[in-house]
Amino acid sequence: MVVAASVVVAAGAVAGVLSAFEDGRGSDQARRPQVSASPRLAPLPAVPSASPTAAAESASPSPSTSVRRTPSPLPSPSRTEQKRERTATVATRLYRHPDSQVLDWVRTHAGDPRHAVIASRIADQPAAVWFAEYAPDTLTARVAAVTSGGAAQGRVPVLVPYAIPGRDCGGHSQGGAPDLDAYDAWIDRFAAGLGSGEVIVVLEPDSVAQAECLSAGERADRFASLARAGRVLKAANPRARVYFDAGHSGWNAPGKQAAWLRQAGAASPGSSDGIFSNVSNFHTTADEVAYDRRVLDALGGPASLGAVIDTSRNGNGAPADGQWCDPAGRKLGRTPTLSTGEPRIDAYLWVKLPGESDGCKGRPGTFTASYAYDLASS
After folding, report:
1. pLDDT by residue (tens digit) across 70-86?
2. Closest by alpha carbon to 84, among 226, 262, 266, 272?
3. Rounded (to 5) percent helix, strand, coil in the chain
4. Which ranges of 66-114 does DSSP label H, i.e. alpha helix?
5. Beta carbons within 8 Å of 330's beta carbon, 6+ residues apart
6. In angstroms, rounded to a whole number, what is the distance separating the alpha carbons of residues 316 and 170?
């Protein structure tokens, strides 16, 4: 089992918006108010977790205090779901969102000797955009800004909704919607911004792999909401490709992970296009490919289900000593692509943006040039 858990933390990263820090920093660090979330790894006892910490906002509706047994109903879509086949990828390029911390640093540090390496090897690559703040009033517009940008360029954006209640088991990345009814409504608003172009949705990192901390009833309720989320997203945009949390190869056994994924709707083509793994972690692509195929085999479902893998920092694999916070000696993994050449592996993605610190080489959630340069030049 893994010693260090994969926990994604961003200091205030919200729906692609990273909240400001109160004091300044030197030229090595850059922080932009409109940017993707930054993950960080934190040790947990044999269980990882993923994604940014969100600053709470009061724009949410008052949460229900009643005990929640089933998710709010979703109207049956008119299209047939039982035999829905995954849409073949037409676009070959992923979308690079123009508002990111690395791009901000590149624009303002043209004279830095590290500029060329960081610009060409990190800033030029597409990365995921995180939506981690519970701010339903602005959510649809923020999602639409990303999806419309991708559609205008004929490229595929990667979005990460991260607002499940009880996320990170109350740890570093705690936050999210006040309850599952509010989360269902938040997902409805998220789906309303998806547009009609092709889009990849990495649905709630850690929401399945880290479910051990929940009671059986809480786990069942969460999984019901995740299954609903998948249906809502795919009903809103039939070209949306939705992937569910499989943790990573150093975490849960494939059979256990698959059993939970099945409960969360990941085996149903009406909710899911497959699974994702290695978000903000360092396990090698080869290990993840083998692990994901074992999970998919155990999961069942149609043969069209596939996997996407976060390769942003896994070029040298996971540290032998279990170090989780900006570990030395890591390097960039495979560049993001929708053409992996591997059966059942749909994409290699940069879900964690390289250079955004876990908190040791820079402030958590901020782009740190020295860290980025180390990753890019290793």
Report:
1. 333 333 333 333 333 33
2. 272
3. 30, 10, 60
4. 101-108
5. 282, 313, 314, 315, 316, 319, 374, 375, 378
6. 31
Contact (CB, 8 A) for 43 and 4? yes
Distances (CA, A) of 187 to 144, 150, 182, 360: 13, 20, 9, 33
Length of the chain: 378
Per-residue exposure over 67-106, b if at least 16 CB sit within 10 Å of its own CB, e if not: ebeebeeeeeeeeeeeebebeeeeeeebbbbebbbbbbbb
Annotation says 168 is catalytic? yes
**Is the distance from CB of 8 to CB of 32 less than 8 angstroms?**
no
Catalytic residue, candidates 273, 292, 358, 374: 358
50 has a pLDDT exceeding 80: no
Report the alpha-carbon distance of residue 304 to residue 287 in Å, rounded: 21
C-alpha to C-alpha distance for 313 and 98, rounded to whole angstroms = 21
Name, in order, each residue with C-beta under 8 angstroms of 71's C-beta and a sequence gap of 6 or more: 180, 184, 221, 224, 225, 227, 228
C-alpha distances in angstroms, 300 versus 257, 268, 296?
A: 12, 9, 6
Q: Who wins on pLDDT, 261 or 61?
A: 261
Catalytic residue among 184, 206, 326, 374: 206
- What crossing angle do the helices spanning 216-236 and 254-263 adopt, rounded to 10°? 70
Of the CA atoms within 13 Å of residue 153, those in its CB half-sphere come to 17
Predicted model pTM: 0.81
- Window from 15-19, 197-201, 239-243, 271-275 with minimum mean pLDDT: 15-19
Catalytically annotated residue among 28, 104, 168, 181: 168
Clarify whether 124 is annotated catalytic: no
Q: Which are the contacts of 341, defined by CB distance < 8 A and separation ≥ 6?
A: none
Specify whether 206 is catalytic. Answer: yes
Amino acid at 240: A
